[in-house]
Every structure is written in structure tokens, then in C-alpha cells.
Automatic annotation (TrEMBL):
PROSITE patterns: MPN, UPF0758. It comes from the Bacteria. Belongs to the UPF0758 family. This is DNA repair protein RadC. Keywords: Hydrolase, Metal-binding, Metalloprotease, Protease, Zinc. GO terms for biological process: proteolysis. Pfam families: RadC, UPF0758_N. The gene is radC. SUPFAM superfamilies: JAB1/MPN domain. GO terms for molecular function: metal ion binding; metallopeptidase activity. It comes from Desulfobulbus oligotrophicus. Gene3D superfamilies: Cytidine Deaminase, domain 2.
């Protein structure tokens, strides 16, 4: 009887959360309530309030909970394979949504949306990832792809493979991005050397490298273009191309 009463109470609480969302939207929810409701999708008969609270206390933020690995989540009391699956499934859906949302849109008008997609897919990773966004002649987004993982340096990114991928996508322009697992947004000397090399190689193939983005922690992005670095690299490479030509 006690168990039956507990189940009824839990069902009523979850229904109130659902009604709250339908009536007031996501802004009315705390991060803990969002996590709790997501967890119930995997275990609808379980009380997930405490597990949600513990997960948020452990990882400090909603994005960090969604970015956490299965191994990390399994250490939280009350989390099992089914509700961990629910968290990771919604994370995967969000990634696909953000990626497909920008396809076909002009980068110059949708750069923030591209940045949002890159932040969502690259923030919180424990290793470096190098992503390329392929653009057509009108700078509309064609697609994006991860082309390298690990320590990103001038020796690990092969310009020939990058150009090959660009040609396969019929891309006229590119935006490249990589993450700093440390959370720092400051570009290293190697980051600048890599950007210079890629820009020069792309120039010879008449492909325009528009920007290099660095993804740190949180929602901040460092843009080489916004900081004036791309303009300087573009001028330097233009002089080299003239000399070679």
C-alpha cells in the first residue's frame, strides 16, 4: 500500500512537471527539474529528483551533465543504464538538430548558430577535436565534419586531406574550429601557425578560409576573424601567393 501511494505521488509530481512545461515553457524550470524530467523518460516509474540533484551537484551545470560520459554518470547514486540512455539520447538529438538547422544558411548571417552547434558538440570534451564547416560560393553551410582528434598541431592536421574533403563537398570556403579542453580561449603559437598554413594551402586551391574558432568552456568562442588575425594572415598569404605566381 505504501509503495502504491508513493507511485501515485511520484506520477502526480511528474505530471505537474509536464504541465508546467506545457503552460510556462522551459524557462520556468530549474536545471535540476530539467534533469529530473529527462531521467524519468528512461525510468518513468522511478523517483529521479534526488538523482538529478546529485548529478547537478557533481557536474555543476546542466550542459556538464549532458556532456558527461556513461562512466561518469554511473557514479551518481540512482542513475542506471536506462535513464543515462535518456540523457545521452536527448544530447544526441540536440546535436543533430543544431547541425541540421544551419545547413543551407549563409554563414555571415548565421555565424552565431554555427558557433552554438560547435559549442554544443565540442565543449566539455577531454581531448582536442578539429572540425571543418564547409561553405559554398555564397557562404551557405553545406555540411560539417570532424577531420582530426587528439592534440591539434600543424603536424596532426594534414592540409592535403583538408583540401580533399573541401573538394569532395564542392566547398568554396571553410570555417575551421577546435576546442581547448583546458577551457582557455587564448590561441597558442601553434594555433596561429596552423591557421596560416591552412590559409596558404587553401589559397592555392582558390578556397577561402574565413575563420578559425576556438571553443573553450562555457558558451564563449574565440574568433580569429573577429580579433583581426585572419585579416593579417590573409594579407601575408596574399603576398606569398603573388611572389609564387
Amino acid at each position: 500500500m505504501e509503495k502504491c501511494e508513493w507511485q501515485k505521488k511520484g506520477q502526480g509530481h511528474r505530471q505537474r512537471l509536464r504541465d508546467k512545461f506545457l503552460e510556462q515553457g522551459i524557462e520556468a524550470f530549474t536545471d535540476s527539474e530539467i534533469i529530473e524530467l529527462l531521467l524519468t523518460f528512461g525510468t518513468p516509474r522511478s523517483d529521479c529528483k534526488e538523482a538529478a540533484r546529485l548529478a547537478l551537484a557533481q557536474f555543476k551545470s546542466l550542459p556538464a551533465v549532458l556532456d558527461a560520459s556513461s562512466v561518469q554518470l554511473q557514479r551518481i547514486k540512482g542513475l542506471g543504464p536506462k535513464n543515462i540512455f535518456a540523457l545521452q539520447f536527448i544530447q544526441g538529438v540536440a546535436r543533430r538538430y543544431l547541425r541540421q538547422r544551419v545547413v543551407g544558411r549563409q554563414y555571415v548571417h548565421s555565424s552565431r548558430e554555427v558557433a552554438d552547434y560547435l559549442i554544443h558538440t565540442m565543449r566539455g570534451l577531454q581531448h582536442e577535436v578539429f572540425t571543418v564547416v564547409f561553405l559554398d560560393a555564397a557562404h551557405a553551410v553545406i555540411d560539417s565534419a570532424v577531420v582530426a582528434e587528439g592534440t591539434i598541431t600543424i603536424n596532426t592536421i594534414y592540409p592535403r586531406e583538408l583540401v580533399k574533403a573541401a573538394l569532395a563537398h564542392n566547398a568554396a570556403a571553410l570555417v575551421v574550429a577546435h576546442n581547448h579542453p583546458s577551457g582557455s580561449l587564448t590561441p597558442s603559437r601553434q594555433d596561429e601557425e596552423l591557421t596560416r598554413t591552412l590559409h596558404l594551402v587553401c589559397s592555392f586551391m582558390h578556397i577561402n578560409l574565413l575563420d578559425h574558432l576556438i571553443i573553450g568552456s562555457g558558451d564563449q568562442v574565440y574568433s580569429f576573424a573577429d580579433q583581426g588575425i585572419m585579416a593579417k594572415i590573409r594579407d601575408d598569404c596574399r603576398q606569398i601567393v603573388r611572389q609564387v605566381g
